[in-house]
């Protein structure tokens, strides 16, 4: 696991997939239907589990003690298509340990996958998360709730990775460590991602404000102290709406 060396151990029971399949996944279909009534788009977290999932015994001490079990696969998504149509606004969170089975399932479903910019600079230029490698049918993020903020990330990575990222984003200044609402290095990252082919780009509000790691949303593998960040009205008022609007207009990511 990228975020925890022993994996993430949640202690949750596994779905009874045989029972669910026998009932055409009706529980899942009701759950998805309600979510789609509430939100413009729904992201299926841990999508790779529909290909195969990591099953951990109830008495295990760490997540390392599990095994891979075949998931529901395309049988599940055929039910989704039957009920919600071929173009249901669903995102597949295909991050983590991705194998050929997951890649094939993504292709078979036609759902957009995810790319995360903070994962882009860990190796060479064929990295799938680099903006120029992102396909059209993908949702691209500067970072998700599990990542550090972009500014916090710049501080936490090695100088080599930070320099690689800044070169890629065309940022050659020595003021990468300036945070706040006009943080220049964070803006360079956002602009570079906006120029990618991705059908949709997403930036956490913390990155639009140039906030540091103390404002990150979640620390994977840690059960307490998460999801406590709240944006204030004062912070929203100080955000550079003009810059955001111009960015969206430049890269055709807004109808305004």
Automatic annotation (TrEMBL):
GO molecular-function terms, A-Z: 4-alpha-glucanotransferase activity
Statement: the UniProt record of this protein carries the keyword Glycosyltransferase: yes
One Gene Ontology biological process: carbohydrate metabolic process
Pfam families cross-referenced by the UniProt entry: Glyco_hydro_77
Catalytic reaction(s) noted: Transfers a segment of a (1->4)-alpha-D-glucan to a new position in an acceptor, which may be glucose or a (1->4)-alpha-D-glucan
Keyword match Glycosyltransferase: yes
Documented EC number(s): 2.4.1.25
Record key words, sorted: Carbohydrate metabolism, Glycosyltransferase, Transferase
Top EC group: transferase
Cited PANTHER family: 4-ALPHA-GLUCANOTRANSFERASE DPE1, CHLOROPLASTIC/AMYLOPLASTIC, 4-ALPHA-GLUCANOTRANSFERASE DPE1, CHLOROPLASTIC_AMYLOPLASTIC
Family membership noted in the UniProt record: Belongs to the disproportionating enzyme family.
Protein name as catalogued: 4-alpha-glucanotransferase
């Amino acid at each position: 696991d990228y975020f925890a060396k022993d994996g993430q151990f949640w202690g949750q029971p596994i779905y009874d997939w045989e029972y669910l399949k026998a009932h055409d996944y009706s529980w899942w279909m009701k759950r998805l239907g309600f979510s789609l009534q509430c939100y413009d788009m729904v992201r299926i977290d841990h999508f790779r589990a529909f290909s195969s999932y990591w099953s951990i015994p109830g008495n295990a001490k760490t997540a390392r003690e599990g095994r891979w079990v075949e998931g529901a696969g395309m049988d599940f998504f055929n039910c989704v298509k039957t009920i919600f149509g071929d173009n249901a606004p669903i995102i597949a969170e295909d991050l983590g340990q991705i194998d050929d089975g997951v890649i094939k399932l993504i292709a078979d479903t036609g759902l957009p996958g995810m790319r995360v910019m903070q994962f882009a600079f860990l190796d060479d230029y064929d990295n799938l998360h680099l903006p120029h490698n992102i396909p059209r049918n993908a949702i691209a993020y500067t970072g998700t709730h599990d990542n550090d903020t972009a500014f916090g990330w710049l501080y936490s990575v090695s100088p080599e990775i930070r320099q690689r990222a800044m070169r890629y984003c065309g940022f050659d200044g020595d003021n990468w460590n300036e945070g706040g609402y006009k943080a220049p290095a964070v803006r360079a990252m956002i602009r570079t991602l906006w120029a990618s082919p991705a059908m949709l780009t997403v930036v956490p509000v913390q990155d639009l404000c140039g906030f540091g790691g103390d404002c990150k949303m979640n620390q994977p593998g840690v059960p307490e102290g998460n999801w406590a960040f709240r944006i204030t009205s004062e912070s929203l008022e100080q955000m550079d709406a003009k810059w955001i609007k111009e960015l969206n207009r430049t890269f055709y990511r807004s109808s305004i």
